[in-house]
Amino acid sequence: MSLSALRWPPFVSPTLGRHLAMALGAAVFLLLVSSQIGAYDDYNLAAIALFAIATAGLTVLTGVNGQLSLGHGALMAIGAYTTSLLLRGRELPLMLVLLASVTTAALIGAVFGVAAARLRGPYLAGATLALALGLPQIPTRYKGVFGGEEGLTVSLPAPPNWLGVDFPRERWLAWIAIAAALATMVLLANVLQSSVGRRFKAVRDHEAAAALCGIDVAQTQVQAFVLSSGCAGLAGSLFAYWSGVTAPGGFSIPLSLQLLSAVVIGGLGTLAGAVWGSIVLVLLPTFTGGMASNLNLPSSVGNNLPLAIYGAVLVLAMLVFPYGIHGGLGRLLGLVRARWGQTSTNHKGVVDWDDPAPGG
């Protein structure tokens, strides 16, 4: 009997078991952190979690499968409006609403993915940009259904009774978002470790070679688009709960560009990079906004300073970490390990040819 069979139950693969163990450890840590911080920090923690879902899905599409998307903000809008319409005048279970939002976004992503599979490079980017431009105009045109520019209000379900009547709603929202983010990360991590993930990478690296190996390139690209769209729909649903209102202004082109920049800054093609990118996406504007208000600058300068600082930090991050934050930290850790290993070897009495000879 193998060690893996002894370690995990027969219905749990070693890879899945490892990912579940990591998710459980992260859940315990994040829940402990959430219980020790205030309402505002819980609110930001929820934002980081929901944007991590969106950036993780975009990482699979762009970083792993090689399809450039500038329209993920619109796919988030689909999930948010699905949630808002389902909750309009009624109360539904949270899980049902989230699943419906994921399904709706995935179906629309499948339709768009079939068309996108025929496009390459700038043509694909232009098509997804058209999606980001056109989709938010629908709520404005059909005000009776989607609420127009004012949007539709969404109320977060009350925390369960076993948490207590005074349990903060911001913390409950953060816990929901954390649970959804960890479940998404486990799912995507296992997909990327499977044959599906290997097909994604093969199509990204060389479509012709992948086709010669028997991979259906178009079908693989559609699968990546559907998976990524489902993640965007889940993030959009949580965004509706987080913001309390679903309006076209919340899903404009800047959101799609911010998601893409977060993926690149965090580390293209890695789920850990998606988390780092979401942290930058949420916390950096808060930091720059506070800096602008503390400097007491004229309004014409102060209003644009956060955007300027945000852009400067992104450029600096790309120069310092060309492989993203996750790649930079990985290289730094590798250098530390190499140096530590070299020092340990020297201390064991093994000759190091870079050191001067004794007595030299």
Sum this structure up briefly.
With 360 residues, this protein is mostly helical.
**C-alpha Rg (nearest Å):** 23 Å
Q: Strand percentage, roughly?
A: under 5%
Strand order of the largest sheet: 1-2
Order of helices and strands: HHHHHHHHEHHHHEHHHHH
Please tell me what the overall shape is: globular
Q: State the helical fraction.
A: over 70%
Number of strands: 2
How widely separated are the two ends?
Answer: 56 Å
Let me know the average pLDDT: 83
Task: Describe this structure as you would to a colleague.
The longest helix is centred in the middle third of the chain and has 27 residues, at 217-243. Helix 3 (39-64) packs across helix 13 and helix 5 (94-116) packs antiparallel against helix 12 (217-243). Residues 1-6 and 349-360 have low confidence and may be disordered. The protein has a two-stranded antiparallel ribbon with strand order 1-2. It is globular, with a radius of gyration of 23 Å. The chain is mostly helical. The protein is built from 17 helices and two strands. The protein has a domain at 3-253.
